[in-house]
Every structure is written in structure tokens, then in C-alpha cells.
Amino acid sequence: MKITINGRTIEAKEGQTILQAALANGMYIPHLCYHDKVGAAGKCRACVVEVEGMRGLQTSCSVQLRDGMVITTDSETVRNAQKLVIDLMLSSGTHDCLACEQNGNCELQDAAYFLGIERPSVQYGEINREFDTSSEFIYVERNKCISCGRCVAACNNTVVNQVLDFGHRGHHTEIVFDTDIPMGDSTCVQCGECSQMCPVGAIVDKNAIGKGRIWEFKKVETVCPYCGVGCKLELHIDERTNKIVKVKGVEDSPTNNGMLCVKGRYGFDFVAHPERLTTPLIKENGQFREASWEEAIELVASKFKALKDEFGPDSFMGLASAKVTNEENYTFQKLMRTAIRTNNVDHCARL
Amino acid sequence: MDKVKVVVGLGSCGIAAGAGKVYQRLLEINEAEGGLFELGKTSCIGMCYKEPLVEVTDGTGTYLYGEINDKRAEEIIEKHVKNNQVVTELVEYSDKIGGKEQDFVDNQVKIVLRNCGKMDPESIDEYEKRDGYKSIKKILENNISEDDVIKTVLDSGIRGRGGGGFPTGMKWKFARGYKSDEKYVICNADEGDPGAFMDRSVLEGDPHSVIEGMIIAAYAINATGGVIYCRAEYPLAVKRLNLALEQARKRNYLGKNILGKEGFNFDLYVKEGAGAFVCGEETALIASVEGKRGMPNKRPPFPAEAGLWGKPTNINNVETYANIAWIILHGAADYAKYGTEKSKGTKVFALAGKIRNSGLVEVPMGITINDIIFKLGGGIKEGKKFKAVQMGGPSGGCIPAELGDTIVDYDSVNATGAIMGSGGMVVMDETTCMVDVARFFLNFTQKESCGKCTFCRIGTKRMLEILERITEGKGEEGDIEKLQELAAQIKDSSLCGLGQTAPNPVLTTIKYFRHEYEAHIKDRKCPAKSCKQLITYMINEKCIGCTVCARVCPTKAISGERKQPHLIDQDRCIKCGACYDACKFSSIDKL
Ligand SMILES: Cc1cc2nc3c(=O)[nH]c(=O)nc-3n(C[C@H](O)[C@H](O)[C@H](O)COP(=O)(O)O)c2cc1C
Ligand code: SF4
Ligand code: SF4
Ligand code: SF4
Ligand code: FES
Fold first, then answer.
1. For residue range B10-35, what is the model confidence (pLDDT) as tens digits?
2. Nearest of B52, B114, B55 to residue B80 by alpha carbon
3. CA distance B297 to B424
4. Which of A234, B22, B174, B444 could potentially form a cystine with A248 if both were Cys, beta carbons 3.0 to 4.6 Å apart?
5. CB-closest option in A88, A165, A166 to B459
6. What is the ipTM of this complex?
7. CATH class of B5-101
8. Do residues A295 and A282 make contact, with C-beta atoms less than 8 angstroms apart?
9. Does A171 touch chain B (CB under 8 A)?
10. Residue B40 has what DSSP assignment?
11. Domain range B124-335, its CATH number among 3.40.50.1400, 3.40.50.11540, 3.40.50.1260, 3.10.129.10
């Protein structure tokens, strides 16, 4: 179907909202409580637009498109309303971006930039919420929270861990863990979904704090090495030190839809661990010595061959790992069946 | 001859004023006198300003005695009960001899409060004697169909008393229209408006009437279960409701095959709310019953389609339900006799603030505000001037004295910018600062916002900060416009009624009392002389040097020799007003 946004006619899909169609066509409308994954909440009102034939301003995140709809996203009325929303949000938190982890990756900043707001027109109220550093991997700074509710929706409906909710009332409303206890004492499993969903710097990954800005990192998409689900990861790598700084789930991946578990998201320290084996070792007279890959593989192959000649192929048993990919498991069984010539091959994931 | 009946008003208001002690004393006397009279309890009689109240009924009529203490109780027993001498100077109202408060009683029409203060609310027998449960029997015995019940409610013209004023019959019709194997009725007894106590009085004084109203609603919409959502701050109401439910179950007004009607199964329970104002909003209330955080949800779907546990649900206010049995018994036409074209019946108001007779009144719709305040309310305390009345609680607005002849119905009140609301009426006199009133109510809504919507959560806070500045004498040019701009956005873009109405007190006070805002901002003066930071205490030439003021001043800001005029050091004065109250020679001016 065809719709018109700011005089431009665009092709849109049935079932899309105004916001989705606009974003899909490269037209930005500020939006903070909406996220593809958690859907429309209609809370923040940053996304308001005018629609011909509808009274007042509409939240573009929640209005379904109809054929021939005529939408304006840049009138003065719209802009003033959007500015006031962002203005109020800026006024109610410590949104001083200089040292914020999310600088450059913050949706509130994007909206303020888009609307040309440098500082709030009203002064900060009393803002002195406690920082929550109790969780091992996640840092919570409620002073920056804009109460968009994305983390709450994600924790309850996406990963269904049901830890987060809103607590208290009025402008004291804030996110709470379980019965308003520190995150580290709560039933949180540290999946990090909330940190992934937070549009601002209110919930961030603790280990990455101070390790660099988003734009400094090289992004590498890969598959999680931990289990057979095969969640898609985006590694943020500091090229100067060649270290992984942070891991994000890839949002549109069909396997995990951006979600990760605590190991996939935060358990990457083994990669650069000093005790990690980085070259093959061969044991001679009870002592290990370093060896090249060629030498090591040569050695194993010759031993396998000798054993096969003496005891036959079925004296072998191959056990593959759940931590490697399907493709690697496929290659492994191929090795057992065609090179060793045995069907004795199994897998550790028999729980 | 029958024994003389002596009944004590034991509602929360009476108990707070000491009625429990009076009852105890009467019990002792009666025991000592070997059961001379019949001692009974009832609930709030409405005349809260005269509590504790004791009503004596003898062969000649009823006599309501006010402001009773132990001594007066003894006097009444001695003179009236024993010797048939009415203690006329203590009689507030009597159907035989009138009394001081005759106007207060005569100008009321009691439908909702028909039993309040007239019977023991803990006795189902007394309720039945006063036509109780006759309406549901009438329906079941005469096989009156669900549709006919709804038609009667529709024809009566009754509109929801919880604030919104939506036609009740219409609501029932919608709920009836949705098919489902389970349906619910809910009674909204959250009563969160500061200063409102209409619902509490009904629940404490006549719990069965609410239950009967709900049973009738359940019959009409085919509901299978029900909830009374009552705030936990009303322990007496909760206790009496639970007692009433137990009694009603024993007589099969609740339970399976009610009164022998095959397949009419319905029961109810009381859910205690934790006292959040927003939980009175129907979708938040439903979330709260379901064990979730009380946050409103988007409508549609309305509860009639998908309410409690996603099932069709009818939700009404306490007062709405309390009308129903009366309407069924007396017919729609009798009810519609009262009121105006679009607002039928009566409305209960809680009078509070600077009014002489603070208490509960039930009046026919269409009465003027002036009549309520002067005829029933007895005018303003201490002979001061009537300035304005806040209707509709924090969601409502201030109606100025000039509009005192506004009639009380939904549309006329709305036209002023206030709302009918649930029936709170806070009366203000010339010493009330209207900016401060706006600040008071906004402070309330701001604190009670559930935090979901940006404008309601942060916008109200920013408005409040501006109002605080103005009352502290730090207002700036443009503040009024900023308030109006924020107010417009908050009204427009909030999800629920709390946010949509929160700016009303500010907008109406700006509309009718703009000059007071301007005086605060431009002249740094509070015309009502109420905002501390904007008043100055000065000693005038009448001072005779008695030194009283100097002695009461907590900061020792007043100096002067004995018999010489005194002086206030303005830098040290904290404007507590102690000197002003203490001076016997009117020598201190409040400027
Ligand atoms: C913030 C807010 C608070 C409310 N509080 C109450 C309340 O305490 N009691 C009540 O009956 N209705 C209250 N309401 C109105 C209810 O949402 C609902 O309209 C009402 O219970 C319906 O009953 P009625 O049709 O009998 O009036 C409130 C509404 C809002 C928006
Ligand atoms: S880390 Fe996961 S479980 Fe813990 S609060 Fe966040 S979303 Fe919920
Ligand atoms: S912590 Fe982040 S995601 Fe959660 S409500 Fe606050 S701003 Fe939104
Ligand atoms: S208007 Fe206020 S109270 Fe109502 S849902 Fe929004 S934030 Fe909550
Ligand atoms: S993004 Fe639409 S209201 Fe928040």
C-alpha cells in the first residue's frame, strides 16, 4: 500500500506502524520506548506525528498504517511536542554525556541531536538515586534512566526471567529488581538482555566501562562458542590491544533474536587468558614441550594409523563437543567414518 | 411500653471523635440500671461536625444529640430516658421538635444513604427489615429478565458515581453483550481523593446495599464472580464487608443457585488495595487485583470486553451500586424524578475545608453550589467570606464564589473547568491562597503518578517546581505561560485519567484567579496572606509594650523595653505567626 510522509509517497507493508514504515524508508522519528523486539508501549511520546483526519498528535509507534494515510513528522506542532518530551527527559536525569558509557550509542542523545537540544530548558530536579554495582557483570545507574520500560518488558516478556519491574510512584518511579533489592542479590541470571535493550546509559555492561567508545571498536559477527544453540554474537574488539571488550547479541538473528545467556555475553575472558593453550604441546619423558601444528598433527596421525593397523577401526571412539558448530561436528563425524572408518562417534550433549 | 432506644454513631468519624468511649459509658450505665434502655450501634449519620452523636428514640419521636461526652451521656440518660425530659439545648435534630440542624437534614434526599445511621450495619436482619434484598428477590421471583433489569437501570438515567459519569445501564449492556463462560463484576472502593469519604461511609454504614447492587449487576450481565477492591486504610469497612458477605452467603444471596434460581451462581470477595490513588483507575485496579503493579493500560479494549483475567468485566463505584437496589424496588421513574435532564438522581458529597458543617450530605442533582454550602453546609466557618470550592478532588478544579449559582450536574460542573468527580467538596475562604491550593493538589497527583507516561511523570513535577517557586516569591515572568504549555501537553498526551486531569486545579485557578498568580510573581505578594515567604509581620502604633510577643517569638526577633513600642527584626523573623496570634491589642499587622 501507499502512504505519504512529509509529502513523499512511499510503499509500505500491511501491518506496519507509521514508525516502522518511516524508519524502513530512512526517515527518522525520535522514539525511545519502542523497540522492534518489545513492541509499542506508547509511553514516551517522543514519536508523535500528525495524521490527516485524526485529531491531535498520534504516537507513530502504535498507529497501524492504512492505505493512503497522509502523515507529517516535521510540522512545528510535532517538533514542539517532541522537543518538550526530550527536554523533560533531560531535565529529570544526569544526562551529562562526557563520561557516559553510551556516548555515541544513546538513543536519547540521537533524539536530542536530531531536535537540536543542547541542554534542557528546565533545571535538573533533585537527582540522587543510588548506583547499583552489586551485580557481577551489570552496572545500573538509575540517574540516567528515562523509564522507557524496555528493560522491564524484555526481562518479563522476552527472556521471561521476571526480575525487573517498576517500583515507587511519581517522579520517584524507578526500575527495581524483585522486591526492590540490589541487582546482585536478586534472582537475576545476568543474561544482560536489559543492558542490550536500554536506550541510554542506565544499564551497562560493567566489564566494558572505561574501555573505549563504541566507534573505536571493530565489530565482528560470530557464533557463540559455548553451546549448540549457536547464538549470533557481535564482538566489540579493541584493535590496539586485540582484545574483546564487549559482546552483544545480534538483534535480527533467527537463532537468538539478540538474546544471550550469561556465558555467551560475559564469559569471554578465556579468549585472552594467559593460561589458555595457544600452541600444541607434546609430552616427552613426562615433560611438555611446545610444538608446531604440523608436528603435532603428524604425530597424532601416525599414532592413529599404527593403532588402527594393529587393533582395527572399531577400537576407536570419537566424542564431539557441543561447544563447536554444526559444521565442525559434521566434519568430525566425517573424519571418524571416512578416515578412521568407524561408526563409533557420539556427542557430549546427551543430557 | 417499648424500651427507649439509644443508638450511638460508630462510623470511623464517630470513633475518631470518641464515640467508642461514649458507647462504653452507656453500656456501663445500662448494666448498672438493669437494662433500662435498648442500646444500639449504627454508622455515620452524616453530621460529622457534631460527632459523637447519640440518637434517642422514645414513644414520641427521635432525638439526635450532638457533641456527646461521658457527662452529657449521663445527663441524657438521667433526664430524657429516665424522666422523659428532652435535653433541648443538646438536640441537633428531631423529627418531633426540629432542632438546630434542621436545615441540614431537611434539604437532603437519601437514597444512597437510606440506611446509613439508621440501622446496625452489622445486622443483616435490620437490613432486610428496611427493604434489604427485596430487589433481588423481586427480580428472581417475578422472573424479570436480564435485559429488563438493564432497561430499568438505563431508564433511571443513573450515571457512574466514580467520577467519569458514564451511564451505568449502558455499561451493563456492553458487558452483557460480550459472550464468555466467565465474567466478573468489580466494585471500585478505592476512594483515593484526598478529603473524600462518601464511599467509606456507605461501606461502613450499609455494606449490604453495595453487595445487593453487585448481585443485581451479576444477574444482569451473567457474571460468575466478583471483587470489592477496598483500600486497606478502611479497616472498619473491610471488616463490615466481610461480615456482611458471610451473612449473605448463609442466606443464599451469594453462592450456588441463588435463592433457588437454577444456574445463578455468584460469589464475591474483598481485595484490599495498598492505597495508591492510581489504583482507582479501572485498568490499574484490574492489574492490581491480578497481582501486578497498579499501572493503567490502554483502552480499548474496555473492561466490558476484556477486564479481569481478560474476561468481560463490569466495574462500578460503591455509590453507583448502592443506588441499584433502590432503583429496582421503586422503579426507574421514581429515581428519575430527582435531578436534571442529563443527570438523574442524587449525589453524595463530602463537605470539607472551611465550611461550618463538614460532613456527608446527599442532595438531588440540580441543586446549586450555593445551596449546598449555605443551606446545608451552614456557610463558612468563623463568618469568613466564601471564596471558592474545589470539586472533583485533585482531578477537578476550583469554582469561584461568583459561579456559586452553578447547578450541580455533570455538564454544568464540567463547563466551569472542574469536574463532578466522586463527590469531594473542599470549601475555601478568603484566607486561602489559590496558587497554594493548586500546588497542594498537584503535589498530590505528581506523587501518585504511576510513572508510565513521560508528561505525567516528569511534566507534573516540573509544574510543581514552578508553583513552589511562585509561592516562595521566586516566580518569574513567563511562569504562567510555561504552566499552561506543560498543562496542555500533560492533558493531551497522558494515557489515563490521572494525567489527563492532573493540570485541572492549576488551569482553573489560573482561569479564575490569575490576578493572584500575578501578584505573587510581579508584586511578590500573596493576596490571601497565606504564603509564608510573602508576608511581613509589623508592629503598629497600637503597641503598648506588654512584651507578650517578644516572649513567644521562637527566634527572639522582637525587641523593645517594657511599656515601649516593640520592633520586629525582619532578618530574624521566620514568619511563624506566633506573635500575631499572641498579641491581645491587634498591634501586629500581617502585610
Ligand atoms: C486516577 C483515577 C482514580 C480513580 N479513582 C477512583 C476511585 O477511587 N473510585 C472510583 O469509584 N472510581 C475511580 N476512578 C474512576 C474509575 O476508573 C472508573 O471509571 C469507575 O470506577 C467506574 O465506575 P462508575 O461508572 O460507577 O463511576 C478513578 C479514575 C482515575 C483516572
Ligand atoms: S540480566 Fe537478564 S535476568 Fe537479569 S534483570 Fe536483566 S534481563 Fe532480567
Ligand atoms: S534502565 Fe534503560 S531500558 Fe530500563 S527503563 Fe531505564 S532507560 Fe529504559
Ligand atoms: S497518565 Fe500518569 S498515572 Fe496515568 S498511566 Fe500515565 S503516568 Fe501513569
Ligand atoms: S516510541 Fe512511541 S511512545 Fe515511545
1. 988 899 999 999 999 999 999 999 99
2. B55
3. 26
4. A234
5. A88
6. 0.79
7. alpha beta
8. yes
9. yes
10. E
11. 3.40.50.11540
